[in-house]
Design a protein that fits this description.
single chain, mainly alpha
Length: about 150
């Protein structure tokens, strides 16, 4: 009986620690990802201020925009890694980041895929997998993808 109770307690402690880790990761990402400057840059990127996805060239951006571009890409790549490694639940990502990751991916995909032949074959692969997971998720219906003003 003691072993069963101890096992149950240990399991509940592990479950609680995992939840705490998820919350800490989300809070850390939320602070950066949803800052005013980050939102402003994403809106500009998604709305085409830097050209169409096929024309996007971060080398033509200002130093500040170039930094924002790579920071955004790196954040979403890391988010993809965390979801793939089951360090962060996908449902929590959808709840906190809404449709933004797929919108960003649509704006930068040709550039990132092109870099795979010039820089690293691993460029953006976790981000791309995260976006594929968004599109195949049963929790996101067609009406979700039809919305226009979700960042």
């Amino acid at each position: 009986m003691f072993i069963v109770a101890a096992s149950f307690f240990a399991y509940s402690q592990i479950k609680e620690a995992r939840l705490s880790r998820h919350v800490q990761l989300l809070i850390s990402f939320q602070e950066k990802y949803h800052s005013q400057a980050a939102r402003h840059f994403r809106r500009r990127l998604i709305s085409g201020d830097f050209g169409s996805p096929e024309q996007l060239d971060p080398a033509r951006m200002s130093a500040e925009d170039f930094h924002s571009f790579w920071q955004l890409h790196d954040q979403l790549e890391m988010l993809g890694v965390l979801v793939e490694q089951r360090l962060l639940a996908f449902d929590l990502v959808v709840a906190c980041f809404h449709r933004s990751p797929p919108q960003v991916w649509a704006a930068i995909e040709p550039y990132i895929v092109g870099r795979r032949t010039h820089a690293s074959p691993l460029e953006g692969v976790h981000f791309e997998r995260l976006v594929r997971r968004y599109h195949s998720s049963p929790i996101l219906g067609a009406e979700y993808w039809e919305r226009q003003d979700v960042l």
